[in-house]
Amino acid sequence: METNRKFGIVKILLLIGFCVLNYESKATAYLSEVVNGNMDTIYMKYSNTVVLPKAYRNLEMTLYFVDDKTVTFKLTKQKEGFIIEDLGKEGYYYLQLKDKQNQVVYQQLLFAKSWSNPIPTLNGDAIMPSYSKANLIKNFDFGLKFIDRPAKNKCQLLSYDLIVKPEGNDPQQLSLNKENNFDPIRRAEALKLLNNNARIFINNIIVKFDDEPNTRNIGPLFFVVKD
Questions:
Q1: Which of 115, 188, 120, 127 is CA-nearest to residue 160?
Q2: What is the chain's percent helix, strand, coil content, to nearest 5?
Q3: Buried b / exposed e across 181-199, counting CB within 10 Å, b at 16+?
Q4: Coil, strand, or helix at residue 58?
Q5: Are strands 104-113 and 40-43 parallel, antiparallel or unpaired?
Q6: Is 164 exposed, middle or buried (0-12, 13-18, 19+ CB in 10 A)?
Q7: What average pLDDT does the segment 66-79 reach?
Q8: pTM of the entire structure?
């Protein structure tokens, strides 16, 4: 009798173990079927288009701000995905797509951020530590390079202060702005004063994004002249 009871206990334990293992294997198999999209960067105050894999475009969608699970945006579904705009908070947003069994089959993180400051450039390239006087007189095209590609058509350079400090002489400062096309004639005259070891300072670089009420000051910077 005692032997039969022990055999019954062992049989029950084996059945429980089989059920647990079977459940875990099914759970693992299910989790492996969830498709994870690459994390995309989206931008505040911008109409962001998010394209979904074709197989998941008609599924039930949930999207919320990760920190507090709030919905602080405008969402418009489209044929190939959706448009997200009017974002209220910077940070991570979590996207879930569920099938008819209410199982998550696709998930993705979206990171919402403001526009990064543009990078000042000279003649289309990043500012170098030194330049020759001849090259500066030949071409002095001060501009911007954008980290966030969509910002290129939404930001403009408004003004900057150009300070030319020849070696051994007093500095000359020019306030240049978009309205006068950054005064190329006065700028060229100032650059003619340069000599070896002269310094050029570019201060108060003011830029403006179309969708922001205030301007940004992304200066200063400087470089030297080597002849």
A1: 120
A2: 25, 40, 35
A3: ebbeeebeebbeebeeebe
A4: coil
A5: parallel
A6: buried
A7: 92
A8: 0.76
Domain regions of the chain by residue span: 35-113, 119-225
pLDDT tens column, 27-44 = 333 444 677 877 899 999
Instruction: Name the phi and psi angles at 178, rounded to 5.
Output: -65, -35
Residue from 140, 120, 150, 124 nearest 216 by CA: 120
> pLDDT per residue over 94-105, tens digit each?
999 999 999 999
How many residues can be counted in the chain? 227
Tell me which residue has tokens 């394209």.
Answer: 51
CA distances for 54 relative to 1, 42, 79, angstroms:
63, 20, 9
- Superfamily for the 35-113 domain: Immunoglobulins (2.60.40.10)
3-state secondary structure of 173: strand
